[in-house]
User: Fold these one by one.
Assistant:
Number 1:
Amino acid sequence: MVGRSLALGEAVLAAAIWASSFVGVKVALEHAGPLTVGGLRYFAAFLLFLPLLGRASPALAKGAWVRLTAIGIAQYTVGNAALFWALGRLPATAGSLSLALVPIMVVLFQVLWLRERPGGLALCGVALTVGGAVVFFSRDAGAGQATALAALGLAVVAFAVLPVLGRELARDRTVSTVPLTAIPLGIGGGVLLSLALAWEGVPRLPLSTWGVVAGLALVNTALAYLLFNHALQHLTATEANVILNLSPLGTAILAWYTLGERLTGWQIVAMATVLVGVVLVQVRRREGVP
């Protein structure tokens, strides 16, 4: 129970940190392309782990390398490239709304791949969380462009890979938390940065934007993903991922507090619905997954 309580705290803290990511990314996108912002952020975070990686990474089995590579390509190369590209063409709320749909894919992949079946309360919690998030953001998301919306759909599928494969590796203690975080960042971030250099050229950013990228790499990436991956030792993929639906709500609250953007009555009700859903997903039967 102590480990599970710590894991819940880690996932909530990661969600709180990621609440500021959309703001930072939108600022960085004013001076660099989406591939460049993502590539710099993730590969820089990988470099931060290098002093720890050698001591924390014993020889890994081939299957572990396959899963770590899949996580890196799906989460950082495909998912975030698609999301960042879409954010350059759609409102930030549209990106938040797309991430609110990820738990649906996570539940499906969890059942098919991990054979961990969520209980009835958890499924109700997922439905409430997704429904509340859709109500909260749908009014301001806008129709957008068809191509950008398709990119968001691709991101939704890609972002479901980390919670599921990461849960498998963390649950079975196949890979410790540092390499589980760092190796996918190095693989996915490296591929993304290579594509950025080829497609968008060498970045020329003002000093302030470099500071934003550094903050995104250190706090919003290295620290937040380390917390989330460690939480997967005790939380199922669905339990951990649903907590992340608190993140876009945190973004909206931050915008309300700092920018004066008002929250409607329906949005307040939707926030309460999301919170209830998150709590229901965390309620386990005694025979539940450890």
Number 2:
Amino acid sequence: MNTQKITFGSGCFWCTEAIFQTVKGVRAVVSGYMGGQIKNPTYEQICSGNTGHAEVVEVEYDADAVSLDEILLIFFKTHDATTLNRQGNDVGTQYRSAIFYTTDEQRQAAEAMIKKLTDEHVFSKPIVTEITPASEFYKAEDYHQNYFNENPVKPYCSFVIQPKLNKFAKEFLDKIKPELLS
């Protein structure tokens, strides 16, 4: 197994976690915080927008089962990479679009994907995704982990996450773990 990790910020980590948990080849998805100035931040501190951290998911995947380009395309197609510090009603630097890379290959692949999506006019506005070296990852509180699967009937899950999962399934059906399709 060729295990790799990459960390994404794309708004609320509950949505991003739910999507990547369904992807074939993804071994683990952990919600957390990255990119800020204080050590061991709490969710309440992150929500203030004053720590510099983004809500992120650390995605661990088998690169022999799903390519980095596929992972990056899923990231870009499942959030709005054209809005600065905002995803829907969530506003602030903690909701920024960001790729925190751990290798030069990841940085180059992210830059190439942005160029490809830009050249193909996939989005009507410029991509504003930050590409930056990974810094210390802080795991979010336990109640944030596996959020959608633990809370499927909560309003946010029903009205925000489930529609995103439905849209994802329409475009990336071939990337969904087979056991989730039955």
Number 3:
Amino acid sequence: MDTSIVRGPVYPQLNQRLRQLVRGEYQAGQKFLTERKIVERFRVSRETANKALASLVSEGLLKFRKGVGTFVRPSLISYDLRTLVSFTEKARAAGKTPSTTVLTLGVLNANEVERAIAERLSLAGPDTLGKMDRMRRMDGKPGIL
């Protein structure tokens, strides 16, 4: 892997290179590079290395354990909000077994909010609005997409 940083903003380049490392060379649960090793390998300042690591932690790619180090998190299912894709399809694409449990199912009580929603949706009335609470799971564990 190319470790050189070209002229221009360093942080975005480093962030992209580290993201590629996480996705290409590391397995879930594996200890990631330390701040010091990033400084040595990419020849950047500690502040830049720290900022890049913090960014990857906030994105959910890495997990920081105080006093232990930074580790690669299991891959999360990504969602493109511009397209509608089913939970089941996304879970299966990630190699997970999807399941659903319906917790509650019913008709909403007609309050101001439901009346406004029914009106905006051009429904006959607020009593036509249903409500369903469900638990989606991947491999038996609650899944959030």
